[in-house]
Specification:
Elements lengths: L3 H8 L3 H9 L18 H15 L4 H9 L2 H33 L8 H12 L4 H17 L4 H11 L3 H13 L7 H21 L1 H4 L6 H14 L2 H10 L3 E2 L5 E2 L8
Antiparallel strand pairs: 1-2
Helix pairs in contact: 1-3, 3-4, 6-7, 7-12, 9-10, 10-13
Length: 261
């Protein structure tokens, strides 16, 4: 006959756990012997191991109590059901692991492969990582809002960065990010951008400059994200307005002003 400590040791649990199972009515509590100790037999060990196994498998204690009272057929069916549920949980956890792996891989989180390829292309062109991050954040929002148009938009962006003039603007902007809003390099970058988009609009039409048809709330959300991430972008938009254009996510032509400084 075993003491409660010996019983717990045989079953691989703590004495506290045994007492908890007693309190829940899962494991019968034997009478005390003449010495005042409770003594457990082999049946108690086997019952405790069954309880422990079910509990460790995630079976609620209320269900454990039902299973312990079930006949062999009911018990087998219940165990099959538990096994099926565990298999589903394993599949879900594998999915979670894959998502964590994507998180560790940076841009692959919440971004389609074609967008990741585009961002990698920007890096290969030597574009400042802060600009790449702004692009990445914008793509995350776009992909969540209109996933069916991602392929169309990325194809357009790939064509655009084949133009050395746009790449030159990105590089100039990257050099200006560490400077104050009045730094000449930011003004020069704005001139480059204004010249580029004006020429493209004149050659290809206004739709070439912006054909995304985004809802105003999404445009505002994306713009605020840019301005919060790269404060100099707000100054660039101010300068760009004086050159006949406004907007970051959604470019629009406006009347040209005389003050270009």
């Amino acid at each position: 006959m075993l003491t409660i400590g010996e019983l717990a040791s045989y079953a691989g649990v703590t004495v506290r756990t045994v007492r908890h199972y007693h309190a829940k009515g899962l494991l019968p509590e034997p009478e005390r012997d003449r010495s005042g100790y409770r003594r457990y037999d082999a049946g108690a060990v086997i019952e405790l191991i069954r309880i422990r196994t079910l509990a460790q498998a995630g079976v609620p204690l209320a269900r454990v109590r039902q299973l312990l009272r079930a006949d062999e057929e009911e018990f087998a069916a219940a165990v099959a059901d538990i096994d099926s549920r565990l298999c589903a949980e394993i599949r879900q956890r594998r999915l979670h692991r894959a998502q964590i792996a994507r998180l560790a891989s940076g841009d692959h989180l919440a971004l389609p492969p074609e967008v990741v390829e585009y961002l990698d292309r920007l890096r290969a062109l030597g574009i400042d990582e802060r600009i790449v991050r702004v692009e990445r954040d914008g793509w995350i929002l776009l992909a969540a809002h209109s996933p069916e148009r991602v392929a169309e938009w990325t194809a357009r962006k790939r064509r655009q960065i084949d133009d050395p003039r746009l790449v030159a603007f990105y590089r100039s902007l990257g050099q200006a990010l560490d400077q104050s809003g009045d730094d000449p390099r930011l003004v020069e970058a704005t001139d480059e951008l204004a010249d580029y988009i004006t020429q493209m609009a004149d050659e290809q039409g206004e739709d070439y400059v912006d054909d995304t048809d985004l809802d105003p709330p999404l445009v505002e959300l994306m713009d605020v994200r840019v301005f919060d991430t790269v404060p100099q972008a707000r100054r660039l938009i101010e300068l760009l307005r004086r050159r006949g254009w406004t907007g970051w996510t959604k470019l629009e032509r406006i009347p040209l002003t005389d003050d270009r400084r």
